Amino acid sequence: MSNQKPPYSELESYMKEAEKLIHVLRTQQVDAIVGESHVMLVRLKQAEENLKNSRNQLRALATYLLSVRENERTVIARELHDEFGQALTSLQLGLSWMSRKLTPGQRPLQEKIKSLSATTTSLIRSVKNIASELRPGVLDELGLVKTLKSEARGFQGRTGMQCRFKTNIAKAKFDRSAAVAIFRIVQAALTNIARHANASRALITMMKRKSTLILTVMDNGKGVTKRLVYSHDSLGITGMRERTLALGGTFTLGGSKSKGTMLTVRIPLSRVIVGKPSSSPSATLSSPDSR
To answer: Which of 6-10, 11-15, 51-55 has the highest mean pLDDT?
Structure first.
């Protein structure tokens, strides 16, 4: 009898060897794919971490720059008031003294002094307004709530739009830097309304809701577009957003043609209130006519 294996036995042996080879190749491919995926996942996590760190650094830089700008505004406002304001006041007193020394026959000179005095008075008023824009003294003297009431009255007086302020936390004591940030947000929002909204009414609310301060500024104008909300050229919106994020809050801005624009800022009370916050049972509403 022949010792040679039947052809089908050799074929079966070849198939088994081929299956083993395919199994090894597949295992190596899977290992390679898994290894490559792991490397890609690690790199992706590193990139995400680097991006997160970069954003945090940029946010910290933005917060620092805002702080520096506020300090510079304070210094400039003080110098305007103390130096330029006092110089103009001295000039006004000097013109008044000269006017009293003139004789009735010096009428042309009296008219000239009167004109110069009126110009000086206008300059004094302008200096006060500029200093107030740079650093509102009422914010330090009377607090945030009364400052926002005053801002609503001033906005209506300047633009002719009806503007009201509503709050249920009138007696709270605000952290100084937080008060400045909130005031600047409201100030920038009202500036945008005056320039772009084509509105007839505006409403500012600052309400305590559990452990959150909710600030809203809304109007009945033409509404803001999404392109403008997320545009890098919208520096006013960017500044409001960065001030909010610096206080650990959230910033949303939206609108429509039928409803106008609504800005909403939510900030943890612990970041803005000094001591235990208290709220009124019902909100108080301030209109420009109320004092």
So the answer is: 51-55
What pLDDT score does 244 carry? Answer: 93
Listed as own residue / partner, the contacts of 192-196 with beta carbons closer than 8 Å and 24 or more positions apart are: 192/236, 192/237, 192/261, 193/161, 193/217, 193/219, 193/221, 193/261, 194/155, 194/158, 194/159, 194/161, 196/221, 196/222, 196/224
Give SS3 for 274: coil
Contacts of 17 (CB under 8 A, 6+ apart): none
Query: Using CA atoms, how far apart are residues 113 and 119, in angstroms rounded to an integer?
Result: 10
**pLDDT beyond 90 at 34:** no
What is 136-291's CATH superfamily?
Answer: Histidine kinase-like ATPase, C-terminal domain (3.30.565.10)
Instruction: Name the residue ranges covered by the structural domains of the chain.
Output: 1-135, 136-291
Which residue type, as a one-letter code, is found at position 140? Answer: D
Residue 76 exposed, middle or buried by CB count within 10 Å (0-12, 13-18, 19+)? middle
Which amino acid appears at position 210 of this protein?
Answer: K
Cα-Cα end-to-end distance for the chain: 123
